Protein backbone atom coordinates (compact mmCIF):
# COMPACT_ATOMS: atom_id res chain seq x y z
CA UNK A 1 0.00 0.00 0.00
CA UNK A 2 1.49 3.34 -1.03
CA UNK A 3 1.04 6.39 1.12
CA UNK A 4 -0.20 9.45 -0.69
CA UNK A 5 1.41 12.69 0.47
CA UNK A 6 -1.09 14.73 2.47
CA UNK A 7 -3.72 12.02 2.64
CA UNK A 8 -6.41 12.40 5.29
CA UNK A 9 -5.36 9.15 6.98
CA UNK A 10 -2.18 10.86 8.02
CA UNK A 11 -4.01 13.61 9.96
CA UNK A 12 -6.47 12.22 12.46
CA UNK A 13 -7.10 15.50 14.32
CA UNK A 14 -9.25 18.31 13.04
CA UNK A 15 -6.69 21.03 13.78
CA UNK A 16 -3.48 21.03 11.81
CA UNK A 17 -0.34 23.11 11.90
CA UNK A 18 -0.45 26.22 9.75
CA UNK A 19 0.47 25.52 6.17
CA UNK A 20 0.51 21.74 6.57
CA UNK A 21 -2.65 21.05 4.61
CA UNK A 22 -5.43 22.78 2.69
CA UNK A 23 -7.78 22.77 5.68
CA UNK A 24 -5.51 25.05 7.69
CA UNK A 25 -6.48 28.02 5.54
CA UNK A 26 -10.07 27.69 6.72
CA UNK A 27 -8.98 27.49 10.35
CA UNK A 28 -6.76 30.56 10.15
CA UNK A 29 -9.53 32.42 8.29
CA UNK A 30 -11.96 31.67 11.11
CA UNK A 31 -9.48 32.94 13.70
CA UNK A 32 -8.96 36.15 11.72
CA UNK A 33 -12.71 36.73 11.55
CA UNK A 34 -13.03 36.17 15.30
CA UNK A 35 -10.23 38.66 15.93
CA UNK A 36 -11.93 41.31 13.78
CA UNK A 37 -15.25 40.74 15.54
CA UNK A 38 -13.56 41.07 18.92
CA UNK A 39 -11.79 44.30 17.90
CA UNK A 40 -15.07 45.69 16.57
CA UNK A 41 -16.84 44.89 19.86
CA UNK A 42 -13.98 46.43 21.87
CA UNK A 43 -14.18 49.52 19.70
CA UNK A 44 -17.92 49.80 20.39
CA UNK A 45 -17.38 49.43 24.14
CA UNK A 46 -14.67 52.11 24.21
CA UNK A 47 -16.87 54.43 22.14
CA UNK A 48 -19.71 53.90 24.63
CA UNK A 49 -17.36 54.70 27.51
CA UNK A 50 -16.24 57.84 25.68
CA UNK A 51 -19.85 58.99 25.28
CA UNK A 52 -20.50 58.24 28.95
CA UNK A 53 -17.40 60.28 29.80
CA UNK A 54 -18.81 63.25 27.86
CA UNK A 55 -22.08 63.05 29.81
CA UNK A 56 -20.29 62.80 33.17
CA UNK A 57 -18.00 65.68 32.20
CA UNK A 58 -21.04 67.82 31.37
CA UNK A 59 -22.42 67.11 34.86
CA UNK A 60 -19.03 67.90 36.37
CA UNK A 61 -18.99 71.21 34.48
CA UNK A 62 -22.36 72.14 36.00
CA UNK A 63 -20.98 71.38 39.47
CA UNK A 64 -17.90 73.42 38.65
CA UNK A 65 -19.99 76.43 37.60
CA UNK A 66 -22.04 76.22 40.81
CA UNK A 67 -18.82 76.16 42.85
CA UNK A 68 -17.39 79.17 41.02
CA UNK A 69 -20.63 81.19 41.12
CA UNK A 70 -21.22 80.53 44.83
CA UNK A 71 -17.52 80.88 45.73
CA UNK A 72 -17.81 77.60 47.62
CA UNK A 73 -14.45 76.74 49.17
CA UNK A 74 -15.49 73.35 50.54
CA UNK A 75 -16.84 72.23 47.18
CA UNK A 76 -13.64 73.36 45.52
CA UNK A 77 -11.52 71.35 47.93
CA UNK A 78 -13.62 68.23 47.35
CA UNK A 79 -13.54 68.77 43.60
CA UNK A 80 -9.80 69.40 43.41
CA UNK A 81 -8.80 66.54 45.67
CA UNK A 82 -11.34 63.77 45.00
CA UNK A 83 -13.90 64.23 42.23
CA UNK A 84 -11.66 65.75 39.57
CA UNK A 85 -8.74 63.31 39.82
CA UNK A 86 -11.06 60.29 39.89
CA UNK A 87 -13.02 61.52 36.87
CA UNK A 88 -9.91 62.57 34.98
CA UNK A 89 -8.08 59.33 35.74
CA UNK A 90 -11.13 57.30 34.74
CA UNK A 91 -11.41 59.16 31.45
CA UNK A 92 -7.73 58.69 30.76
CA UNK A 93 -7.64 54.98 31.65
CA UNK A 94 -10.99 53.89 30.22
CA UNK A 95 -11.46 56.09 27.17
CA UNK A 96 -8.51 58.18 25.99
CA UNK A 97 -5.73 55.58 26.05
CA UNK A 98 -7.79 52.61 24.73
CA UNK A 99 -9.34 54.65 21.91
CA UNK A 100 -5.92 56.03 20.97
CA UNK A 101 -4.43 52.54 20.84
CA UNK A 102 -7.37 51.22 18.81
CA UNK A 103 -7.15 54.12 16.36
CA UNK A 104 -3.41 53.73 15.84
CA UNK A 105 -3.80 49.99 15.33
CA UNK A 106 -6.98 49.70 13.21
CA UNK A 107 -7.65 53.25 11.83
CA UNK A 108 -11.42 53.13 12.24
CA UNK A 109 -13.51 56.32 12.22
CA UNK A 110 -15.32 55.32 15.39
CA UNK A 111 -11.99 55.03 17.24
CA UNK A 112 -10.92 58.44 15.96
CA UNK A 113 -14.13 60.06 17.19
CA UNK A 114 -13.87 58.20 20.46
CA UNK A 115 -10.34 59.53 20.93
CA UNK A 116 -11.37 63.07 20.04
CA UNK A 117 -14.40 63.30 22.33
CA UNK A 118 -12.74 61.53 25.26
CA UNK A 119 -9.64 63.70 24.85
CA UNK A 120 -11.72 66.87 24.85
CA UNK A 121 -13.58 65.65 27.94
CA UNK A 122 -10.29 64.87 29.70
CA UNK A 123 -8.83 68.26 28.83
CA UNK A 124 -12.04 69.95 30.00
CA UNK A 125 -11.88 68.23 33.40
CA UNK A 126 -8.17 69.03 33.69
CA UNK A 127 -8.78 72.69 32.81
CA UNK A 128 -11.60 73.00 35.34
CA UNK A 129 -9.47 71.52 38.12
CA UNK A 130 -6.57 73.86 37.33
CA UNK A 131 -8.95 76.84 37.13
CA UNK A 132 -10.19 76.13 40.66
CA UNK A 133 -6.72 76.97 41.94
CA UNK A 134 -6.96 80.47 40.48
CA UNK A 135 -10.58 81.37 41.31
CA UNK A 136 -11.07 83.37 44.49
CA UNK A 137 -13.20 81.23 46.80
CA UNK A 138 -14.56 81.70 50.32
CA UNK A 139 -14.28 78.89 52.81
CA UNK A 140 -14.04 77.97 56.46
CA UNK A 141 -10.32 78.66 56.63
Q: Helicity level, as a percent range?
A: over 70%
Instruction: Return the average pLDDT rounded to an integer.
Output: 83
Q: Number of DSSP strands?
A: 0
User: Segments where pLDDT lies below 50 for 5+ residues?
Assistant: none
- Taken from the alpha-carbon principal axes, the silhouette is elongated
Total helices: the number is 3
Taking the sheet with the most strands, its summary is:
none
* H and E order: HHH
Q: In brief, what are we looking at here?
A:
The chain is mostly helical and 141 residues long.
What does this structure look like?
The chain has about 140 residues and is an all-alpha fold. The protein has one domain. It has three helices and no strands. It has helices spanning about 25-70, 75-105, 110-130. It is elongated and about 60 Å long. It starts with about 20 loop residues before the first helix and ends in a 9-residue tail after the last helix. The mean pLDDT is about 85.
Amino acid sequence: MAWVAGANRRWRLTFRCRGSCRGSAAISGTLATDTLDMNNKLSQIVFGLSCLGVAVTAGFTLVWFSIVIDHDGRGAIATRSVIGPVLGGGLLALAVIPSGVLFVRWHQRRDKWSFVISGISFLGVLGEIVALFFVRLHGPW
